[in-house]
Amino acid sequence: MKVSWERYTLRFRERAITSRDSMTEKATWFVRIESDEIPGGEAVGEAAMFKGLSSEDAPDFEQRLDMACRAAAGCTTITDALDSLPPIPSIRFGFESALLRSGLYPTSGLESGWLSGEVGIRINGLVWMGDKPTMRRRIREKLDSGFHCVKLKIGGIDFEDELDLLADIRREFSPDDIELRLDANGGFTPDNALRRLERLARFDIHSLEQPIKPGQWEQMREICRLSPIDIALDEELIGFRSGEEKAAMLDAISPRYIILKPSLCGGFRESEEWISLASRRDIGWWATSALESNIGLEALGIWTASLNPSMPQGLGTGNLYTNNIASRLEMRGERLWFG
Asked: What is the pLDDT of residue 93?
């Protein structure tokens, strides 16, 4: 078995802004596995470490990735190679995404109909932060494209302007027409979160992701208990190593939903454990990409389709970058297809 990696810089078509950061480019790392076990002899995955957000973001990340590749190359089977991996989310995601794309990852979803082009995955239309005219234009583009679930990043412009944008949508579209999801990326504070949630609630918001920064369990639990809008946890899921720790957090906060970004919360196997723990507690979930290239996005599509999701998912469309990797992914209306 041969295993290697290379760094690649993705460049955004437009500046991507959240309440946490502003980006014009994003680094990612491709993992190539060569083995007789793999159809065609090789598979490529994406170790999508997210600078400033991944728990493994450190100066020695590439050394750790190199060590993982060397250890995997010393294994005799793909299964042994997976077992040899360190508990580093993006590295595990890199190997698992390679196997998903080659048909070797153990999931029944390979017969889900998505890979054969028979079904598409319904996704939300993501509207990035910007000034008020820019956000208004982006919202209109999503609605005109046929999306019935729109997710807005908020917290980056004046809050009153954001309320005006939501009012514009609701004047034209009822909750039966358009489902609105919001993502604060931890941009509220424990002191202002509930006041803001109360003002947002009049627009019939489906859910709001990560109102305050992660790690404030007591405050987040109180927000979840009192909020007139269902709360979803996102960044809160990053950095956990055991099922016991995950269960303790879910029990402490009791959110309505969790948002799964496999490249950030442990890879696909760990994400499946999150789903199992959440389901036992009547907590809903959906999957979301984390600015991966089309390599990671293809694997996310395969995995997500295998779970037969009933809600709109948060998968990217592959159109964020000017230099994305060629792919068979295709958007038709509000559904992501594998062409």
From this structure: 98
Same domain, 213 and 300: yes
Q: Pick the closest to residue 272 from 106, 134, 124 (CA basis).
A: 106
Residue-wise pLDDT for 96-135, tens only, equals 999 999 988 876 455 568 989 999 999 999 998 888 898 8
Which residues are designated catalytic? 153, 261
Nearest in space to 43 (alpha carbons), one of 71, 75, 2, 8: 2
Residues 177 and 51 in one domain: no
**In this predicted model, what pLDDT tens digit does every residue of 168-185 receive, in sequence order?**
999 989 999 999 999 999
Please indicate, yes or no, whether residues 168 and 284 belong to a single structural domain of this protein: yes
Q: Among 21-30, 125-134, 292-301, 306-315, name the one with the lowest average pLDDT.
A: 125-134
Task: Determine whether 76 is exposed, middle or buried from the number of CB atoms within 10 Å of its CB (0-12, 13-18, 19+).
Answer: exposed
* 304 in the same domain as 212: yes
Strand stretches in the chain, DSSP E: 2-17, 22-34, 42-47, 121-122, 125-127, 149-153, 179-183, 205-209, 231-233, 257-260, 284-287, 329-332, 335-338
Digit-coded pLDDT (tens) for 15-32: 888 767 789 999 999 999
CATH number at residue 225: 3.20.20.120
Say how many domains are in the chain: 2
CA-based nearest residue to 11, from 2, 21, 23: 23
Q: End of a domain among 80, 107, 134?
A: 107
Tell whether 326 is covered by a domain. Answer: yes
Range of the structural domain that residue 324 is part of: 121-338
Residues 72-83, mean pLDDT to the nearest whole number: 94
218: how many CB neighbours lie within 10 A of its CB? 10
- In this structure, the answer to whether residues 97 and 134 fall within a common structural domain is no
pTM recorded for the entire structure? 0.94
8 Å CB contact between 177 and 148: yes
Chain centroid to CA 320: 14
Cα 96 to Cα 303: distance, rounded to the nearest angstrom: 10
The answer to whether residues 212 and 180 touch, using CB atoms and an 8 Å cutoff, is: no
